[in-house]
Amino acid sequence: QVPLVESGGGLVQAGGSLRLSCIASGRTFSSYAMGWFRQAPGKEREFVAATRWSSTSTYYADSVKGRFTISRDNAKITVYLQMNSLEPEDTAVYYCASQSDFHYDSELRERAYYDYWGQGTQVTVSS
Predict the structure, then answer these.
(1) In sequence order, what E strands does the chain have?
(2) What is the pLDDT of residues 58-114, one digit of tens each?
C-alpha cells in the first residue's frame, strides 16, 4: 500500500487556483516532514515547498514564493498545497513526499532525502 496519495490536480486557466491534497497513511508509515515537488515534461523533478509536522516553518522555491502556500492538518495527516496565480510554467506532475527522519532545512529541498513518494497528480495551466 502506497502511504501517500495526492489529489486535486486538473486543468485551470492562467491566473486561476488549485489546491492539492496529500493524505499520508499506512500502519508502519512514519513521517517527520513533507514536501511537494513537481516535474514538467523533459525536466528534472524540482522542489516546490516543504514543512515539518511539528513546526510552523515553511519553505518554498523562489519560483512559487508568494503564490503557493503549503499547510498541514495533523489530525487528518494531510498536507495541502494551495496554488494561486497559476502560470503556464507551473504545468507539471506534482508529487508529495515524506521524510522519515529529521533533516536540516537545506535538505528539505533535496529529493534524495525523501523516503516515500506519492503517485503524482497532473496540473495543467492553459494560457
Answers:
(1) 4-7, 10-13, 18-24, 33-39, 46-52, 58-60, 68-73, 78-83, 92-99, 116-117, 121-126
(2) 999 999 999 999 999 988 999 999 999 999 999 999 999 999 889 999 999 999 999
Judged on CB neighbours under 10 Å (0-12, 13-18, 19+), 69 is: middle
Strand pairing category for 78-83 and 68-73: antiparallel
Alpha-carbon distance of 100 to 119, in angstroms, equals 18
Q: Which residue has the cell 487528518?
A: 76
Rounded Cα–Cα distance for residues 29 and 48 (Å): 23
Pairing of strands 4-7, 10-13: unpaired
Question: Dihedral sign, CA of 27, 20, 38, 123?
Answer: positive
Mean pLDDT, the chain, rounded, equals: 94
Residue-wise pLDDT tens digits, 34-46: 999 999 999 999 9
